[in-house]
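User: Can you help me understand a structure? I only have the sequence.
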Amino acid sequence: MSNQRELILVVDDEARMTRFIRMNLELEGYRVIEAHNGLEALEKVRTHLPDLVILDVMMPELDGFETLEMLREISNVPVIMLTVRADEEDKVRGLELGADDYVTKPFGARELVSRVRAVLRRTRGPVMPEKAILRIDDRLSVDFNSQHVIVEGKRIKLRPTEFRLLYHLIENAGWVVPYETLLAKVWGYEYREEIHYLRLYITYLRQKIEPDPSHPRYILTERGVGYRFIDFRKEQSSESGSENSSGSLPSLPAGA
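Assistant: Let's start by predicting it. Here is the structure, written out as tokens:
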């Protein structure tokens, strides 16, 4: 049983489903609250500040997609979508609206708990040294302490999943990192086949750090294999006096 006491909001109009989810999450040591429609869910996010939301897509009046869109206007809380359809368009739509994961009904307790743990693990802020700024070039730096990128002097906040993806790309700068490796490191071992997750978050990162996302300078695609971050250390080998002159990264905690 987990010793964690994160608060999880379960949103589903089917009472039997909410009971099933609550029972299994509480057995793992999580605290659980419920909402039975989108408006109630939005109110409970405001008042209870949950650590995670499990949100059903198929609800009357305000469906899961509409609820998620409104939720993202007030909160960055991680969200797992529940859907009865395995259609990839629905999954991508949810991810584009800001969902962190999805689970297709029917599902077992083990799968649900595994997904909950994986999302909470990657959305926890890793503990970084007080000074953890890495200069990539004159245009781009990464602040590992605050999980920001600094692009042409402007600080841009990264979402937790974006940050972990960028971390693992930079850690292997100059080397091709296979799709499966990135998925396992950022999302978890059970996500190794979910390549559309990776492509979507690569797009998000490029939109935040690249001067021209359609012609990337930093995150390069090696078709059919994986992604490669430019070998900035090689280019900096003759430089000195940067914020992190060694070019080394602070360590992520175990499980990151």
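Now, to help you interpret it: The CA atoms of residues 151 and 254 lie 29 Å apart. The domain at 7-123 is CATH 3.40.50.2300 (Rossmann fold). Let me know which part you'd like to focus on.
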